Amino acid sequence: MFEVSWDDTEIRRALRKLQGAGVGLSGPLQVIGLKLVESTKQRFATGVAPDGAPWQANTAATLARKSGSKPLVNHGDLERQISYAVSGDVLEVFSTQEQAAMMQFGGSKAEFPHLWGDIPARPFLGVSAADEVMILATMARYLKNAL
């Protein structure tokens, strides 16, 4: 398993406010989870990482092995398997696909001899600036409704 993290100081502060107001976190985390899944799936259409960096184009070796030219898009399995889970006050967004970690972090043929070539990192999991705004707005809405 792998983990992607970012500076979540503002989000943690908002979570503490929700908890302090007696708001259960399950509702807001469910809403946020659904929206993060959609945001993550959108990255497959735009080819852009959560930090705004464009994904590296496919190499000729990759193009010869797959249909279509978009990175991380072949049959759509990776995109379709993006999901989320809430457990207590923890929200996880993930893919159940075996190749997800290789696509997220990349790998070299030297490290993984079974690859047909080096795989560049193409981060699709993570929280973008727009996602962070959505998360904070969702929490603010729940807090406002609780007061």
Main sheet makeup = 2 strands, antiparallel
Radius of gyration equals: 18 Å
Mean pLDDT: 85
Strand fraction band? 5-15%
**Percent of residues in helices:** 40-55%
Shape: elongated
Structural class, please? mainly alpha
Low-confidence stretches: none
Q: Order of strands across the widest beta sheet?
A: 1-2
- SSE pattern, N- to C-terminal: HHHHEEHH
Q: How many separate domains make up the residues?
A: 1
Helical segment tally?
Answer: 6
- The first-to-last residue Cα distance is 39 Å
Please report the total strand number as a whole number: 2
What keywords describe this structure?
147 residues; mainly alpha; two-stranded antiparallel sheet
Structure explained in plain terms:
The chain is mainly alpha-helical and 147 residues long. It has one domain (10-146). Helix content is 44%, strand content 8%. It contains six helices and two strands. It has helices at residues 9-20, 26-46, 60-63, 77-80, 100-105, 129-146; strands at residues 82-87, 90-95. Strands 1-2 form a two-stranded antiparallel ribbon. Strand 1 (82-87) and strand 2 (90-95) form a beta hairpin. Helix 2 (26-46) packs antiparallel against helix 6. It starts with 8 loop residues before the first helix and ends with a helix.
